[in-house]
């Protein structure tokens, strides 16, 4: 895997080559730990809210969500807050 190739959440295939000009955050903890999330299309308000991401290995099984929120003072990391049903 090259320096520009990572595991990116929601891509059709992994590993995925990072796209120039895109903004990614690293997911920390929980079932999606270590994956990157492309937040390029999100507004600043949407980024501040975080996201419940589909996680087949969540506590709620397929269709469950893993809740990730931005780490305080760190724009490049989102921390896992727990699993939620959907």
Structure write-up:
With 86 residues, this protein is mainly beta. The chain has 1 helix and 7 strands; from the N terminus they run ββββαβββ. The protein has one helix at 44-49, and strands spanning 5-6, 16-17, 24-28, 36-38, 51-54, 65-71, 74-84. The strands form 2 sheets. The protein has a 5-stranded mixed β-sheet. The longest helix is centred in the middle third of the chain and has 6 residues, at 44-49. The mean pLDDT is 88.
Summarize this structure as a short list of keywords or feature phrases.
86 residues, 5-stranded mixed beta sheet, two-stranded antiparallel sheet
How would you write the strand order of the largest sheet? 4-3-7-6-5
Largest sheet: 5 strands, mixed
End-to-end separation in angstroms reads: 34 Å
Number of helices: 1
Cα-atom radius of gyration: 13 Å
Low-confidence parts: none
Strand content: 35-45%
Structural class by SSE content: mainly beta
- Shape designation: globular
Which oligomerization state do the chains in this entry correspond to?
A: single chain
Tell me, rounded to a whole number, the average pLDDT.
88
Helix content: under 10%
What order do the helices and strands follow?
EEEEHEEE
Number of strands: 7
Layout of secondary structure:
Layout: E1 5-6, E2 16-17, E3 24-28, E4 36-38, H1 44-49, E5 51-54, E6 65-71, E7 74-84
